[in-house]
Amino acid sequence: MTARDAIALKPCPFCGGKAKLCTGRAAEDAEFAQVICTDCRVQIDYFEDAYAPTADAVAAWNRRAAASPHMPADGWVLVPEGGPVELDDCPEGLFLFGGTLAVMTEYATMSKTVPPMRQRDAYIVESGEYFWGGTSRTVDRAKLMVQPLASRPKGGA
Ligand SMILES: [Zn+2]
């Protein structure tokens, strides 16, 4: 077993595939290290240094962003919470509109209409785009029927 085998690489964050560390000589006085997914081929930046850039490459690969507070953790599922409501009455948190998962925030902006209307800010989870639900006017958007969601332990009551 070599030192390289002993380095614990986390699985690929995208496909769960096995990660592989590639090292070698980059130039006469430099080495390179890079981690690549053996399944989907996603890779981190190429680390090049005069002395053993392996630790930097491994640390970069193993780094994971904290889970979003809006998304359920492992072992949790999303379930409907109460009946469908108009967007303006939707509690803060996740909701479904058609097949779109979105999140209602605690914030609002004033519409550019005359007179201005308070427009609650909601975003599509997947894309981060502002949620309009196919409407283009604040007054129509506020009346969209959406399904609030809650997270519950998997298999729980
Ligand atoms: Zn992968």
Give the structure's gist in a few sentences.
By secondary structure, the protein is mostly beta strands.
Helix vs. strand class: mainly beta
What bound compounds does this protein have? zinc ion
Task: Estimate the mean pLDDT confidence.
Answer: 85
CATH architecture of the largest domain: Roll
Reported for the largest beta sheet, the result is:
6 strands, antiparallel
Q: List the secondary-structure elements in sequence, H or E.
A: HEEEHEEEEEHE
How widely separated are the two ends?
Answer: 48 Å
The whole-angstrom Rg is: 23 Å
Poorly predicted runs: none
At CATH level 3, the topology of the largest domain is SH3 type barrels
Q: Beta-strand level of the residues, as a percent range?
A: 35-45%
Fraction of helical residues = 10-25%
Can you offer a commentary on this structure?
This protein is mainly beta and 157 residues long. It has three helices and nine strands, in the order αβββαβββββαβ. The chain has helices spanning 3-6, 54-62, 138-141, and strands at 19-27, 30-37, 47-49, 76-80, 85-86, 93-97, 100-110, 118-124, 145-153. The strands form two sheets. Strands 4, 5, 6, 7, 8 and 9 form a six-stranded antiparallel beta sheet that branches. It has a three-stranded antiparallel beta sheet with strand order 1-2-3, with helices on one face. It is elongated and about 70 Å long. The relative contact order is 0.15. Residues 12, 14-15, 17, 37, 39-40, 42 line the site of zinc ion (ZN).
Please write out the topology:
Layout: H1 3-6, E1 19-27, E2 30-37, E3 47-49, H2 54-62, E4 76-80, E5 85-86, E6 93-97, E7 100-110, E8 118-124, H3 138-141, E9 145-153
Antiparallel strand pairs: 1-2, 2-3, 4-9, 5-9, 6-7, 6-9, 7-8
Bound molecules: zinc ion.
